[in-house]
Amino acid sequence: MSDLSTVGGAVFEESFGDRVRALLRARPVADAADNAARQMWGGCEYDVVTLALAAIDAVIAKQGFDQEVTYDEAVAGLAVLAAAAHPERSIDEHGAVARYVVDALLNRKEREAPFSYQISIFGRDDDGSVRHRVGTAEFRLLTEHEDHRRGVNVLRASTDAINALVGGLEFDVEDEQAAIELMLARQLERGAFGQAEKAAERSLLLSIRYADELRTLLADTVRDIRTVLPQWVREVPEQLERNRTHLEERLAAESTLLGHLRRALDAPDTEPEVSKASARIAALLEKCRHRHTELHGKLVNARTIFLDEQARQSFRPVGGLRNPDIMDGLFLPLLVLRADVAVEPAETFAVLVSGGQVPRVVRVADLVDDLLAPRRAPSPEDPPVPDEELGDPDPPAIPPEVLGAAARLVDEVGLPARLSDLLLSARAADLPAEVEQVIVLAALWKYAPETAQDVSTAVDTAARVLGAAAAVDADGARITLPGWSGDDLIVAQDEESLSRWAAVADRDAS
Amino acid sequence: MTLSQRDLADVGVLIGCALRPKMRPGADNDYRALLSRYRADVEFRNAVDSVLEGLEAQVLSDSDLGLVLGVRRESVFAYRISDLPNVGGVTERLLVGLVSVAVAAYAFPTPADFDDDRVRWVSVDELERFLRETCERFKRTPEQAQGSLDEAWRTYDRLSPGYKADRGKGKARRSPASSTYWVAHVLTWMVDQALARSAPARGPEVFQLLERFRIQAAELAGNAAYDVLAAIRRGDHDREAAP
Fold first, then answer.
1. A66 interface with B at CB cutoff 8 Å
2. Which of A41, A74, A437, A487 would bridge with A474, disulfide CB 3.0–4.6 Å?
3. Which residue of B has its CA nearest to A153?
4. Cβ atoms A173, A181 nearer than 8 A
């Protein structure tokens, strides 16, 4: 027990876990800063934490309005900051840093899953022994949503992110706001403008968080009124009424504060820092007022939305109201069904999820026109499409190893030579019969090229076996080799050596 | 007060817009005006709903996204899966259905996920892996491993995942005998139906599931397919299971 006294009792208190959870909200940002060193640009010290908070702020600034911040806009904004921090680095790197920060807040690395951390929850039993239990804290900071009007993806900050930024505020929004108002008024009296500005910022963030709560409630109401019906019965009407008067008060109070600040600005003996600060606060309060007005509009409509949805959803088929359990209710059971039985439900899903198609119907007018049109005569200019182009190229008729063997043989014997000599050495070398045939065909092609189609293949083959400039001629001698008949052709490497061979042969003959 | 001829024509125009899923009210003034009339004017809304009822269709959502229609299978507007290229036989239809369900199961694993409208991304590779791992799990469960050998998952498992898509001639060369062909096929089809869009910035063959997919799956397809499945389980699918 004496060990425990050093720990203190706070760790067992209920609120302790809340503080741990609040602290964890900052962890993704810290992790991102840690991992930054491993990036390509890690050597350059960018302040990832500041950039991350700036990103959340930029998102919050427009959240709930018509033009929410898109991913690209957030990245572009951060890239400007990164560029200001390290102007000597390339623009690409600034973009990479900005993307890294926004991706980290979205947790893109893990497919935008929520950040999840294990936490220890300690408790004490009646006998004084310490219990330990593992819990998890799960939350998101930024999320991507589809903007219905524009069709682009926009970013939204989660309640967690707003809270983490405001500083782990866990109490009622309205009271907090009233407190800030009071504090601001006092601070202005005392001239503590730095703190007053901070307080004004908080007030803005709280307004945004409040709007978010309202948005969630209304979205739930539109989606399925039954899930929030108990809430509407008990808390919501009262809450809405209270909020409405509260907002009206706030609007009045903030314009009074603005008046105060303006008076401070107009006073002749104001110090420059004070006037600068109050100008900033004035701008901030103006933003707050804008927010409040927006909120007020939403609030006024809330009850109408509820009644409309009640009327609309009461006529909706009950089946449509519950969310389906695709994984356990459909996907896995479907997979274990017999294939022929599973087709029907699987296809039903595909057909219904597709949303339909407009059938293409044959128009009678077009059909009649087509039938009455004069028959088109084939134009004689169009050459028939050769069939070869349609299929794959034909496989080579002669295997490459045969071609290689033939070429080596011709090299060994040496040109010029008689065809019979080439064939004899081919037989002597115990080469396959195809080699002989290739040599003969190549020589014949060189002697009398046939002008059939597919010329290129024959030219290539002959050139590979006998050489590109080879020349072939006949002098009336007959081939005496068994298996072949006809002229014993003279094969030379070019025209010149062929004529020399002819000259020598003539001399021998004479 | 009754609707005039002009109003009825407007009913037709609005339904026409709703049947073109790629049309956005944000970009079309007439559509936007008629959509807000649908939301505000009960009589007009009833007229639209009744006409759609006659066409075996219904409005699933009337947000700024536009009028999202759910179309029942017996409707003239129902998609015919056999119209897809290379989908002729029972096996192909099964594959298209299974992969469609897999997309939903992968992106929205629990019922609560349908309440969250954050953006979901899927890629051909991820989905292939997801399906493959599910098949592997079935192989390890004893009662499946020595099953009748004609369960639906085996149809997918028999396909080879191998393909040479990133070399040479692209996905056009992917063979219908490969599983990735079917995953890519279904995702491309979903792009045509404005349920998804391709996101080349996020990597090769990555797709973003659009809000429309979430609505269609949550509001109609999931439960309707489940009802068919339940009917089969009860054993009365022999007498023409109507969805």
1. no
2. A487
3. B119
4. no
- Bridge-based pairing state of the strands B57-63 and A490-492: unpaired
Bin A191: left if φ > 0, else alpha if -120 < ψ < 50, else beta.
left
Reduced to 3 states (helix: H, G, I; strand: E, B; else coil), residue A330 is helix
Give the count of alpha carbons within 13 A of A473, CB side only.
16
| pLDDT of amino acid B121 | 92
Q: What ranges do the domains of chain A cover?
A: 2-165, 171-313, 400-509
CB atoms within 10 A of CB A463: 16
**Nearest-by-Cβ selection for B79 from A324, A343, A351:** A351
The one-letter amino acid code at A136 reads T
| Residue pLDDT, tens place only, B2-61 | 788 999 999 999 999 999 988 888 888 999 999 999 988 888 999 999 999 999 999 998
Backbone angles phi, psi at B223, to 5 degrees: -70, -40
Contacts of A323 in chain B (CB under 8 A): 111-112, 114-115, 218, 222
Q: What is residue B102's three-state secondary structure?
A: helix
Average the pLDDT over A275-286 and give the result. 74
Give the pLDDT of residue B168. 47
C-beta atoms of B193 and A355 within 8 A: yes
Q: Which two tokens stand for residue A337?
A: 């069904």
A4, A82, A196 from A101: Cα distances, Å:
42, 11, 30
Which DSSP category does B195 fall into?
Answer: S
Q: What is the DSSP letter of A365?
A: H
Q: Residue A509's pLDDT band (boundaries 50, 70, 90)?
A: low
**Cα(A215)–Cα(A208) distance, integer angstroms:** 10
Round to whole Å and give the CA distance between A240 and A455: 89
> Which one-letter amino acid corresponds to residue A271?
E
Report the candidate in A11, A284, A303, A265 with the shortest Cα–Cα distance to residue A130: A11
Picking from A319, A337, A352, the nearest residue to B216 by CB comes out as: A352
| Whole-number CA gyration radius for chain B | 20
Report the Cα B213 to chain-centroid distance in Å: 6
Can you tell me which residue has the tokens 């067992």? A12
Per-residue pLDDT tens for B111-125?
888 888 889 999 999
Structure tokens at A384: 């028939």
Asked if A51 and A138 count as a contact pair (C-beta separation under 8 A), the reply is no
DSSP state of A453: S
* A344 reaches B (C-beta below 8 A): yes
> Are residues A483 and A507 in contact, defined by beta-carbon separation less than 8 angstroms?
no
- Residues A27-81 have pLDDT tens digits of 888 899 888 888 888 777 888 888 988 888 888 777 766 778 899 999 999 999 9
Which chain A residues are Cβ-neighbours of B60 within 8 angstroms?
320
Choose, out of A310, A314, A331, the residue to mutate when testing the contact with B (most B CBs < 10 Å). A331
Chain B residues 112-151 with CB within 8 Å of chain A: 112, 114-119, 121, 134-135, 138, 144, 147-148, 150-151
Of chain B, the end-to-end C-alpha distance in Å amounts to 37
Are B213 and A353 in contact, with CB atoms under 8 Å apart? Answer: yes
> Is pLDDT at B99 greater than 90 in this prediction?
yes
Convert B197-223 to b/e letters by CB count within 10 Å (16 or more is b): eebeeeeebbbbbbbbbbbbbbbbbbb
Predicted TM-score (pTM) of the model is 0.59
Q: What tokens were used for A439? A: 């040599």
SS3 A415: coil
Both structure tokens of A325 = 């359990």
CA distance B118 to B126: 19
* Integer Cα distance of A382 and A395 in angstroms: 29
Judge whether residue A362 has pLDDT over 70.
Answer: no
B174 touches chain A (CB under 8 A): no
Nearest to B25 by CA among B41, B14, B10: B14
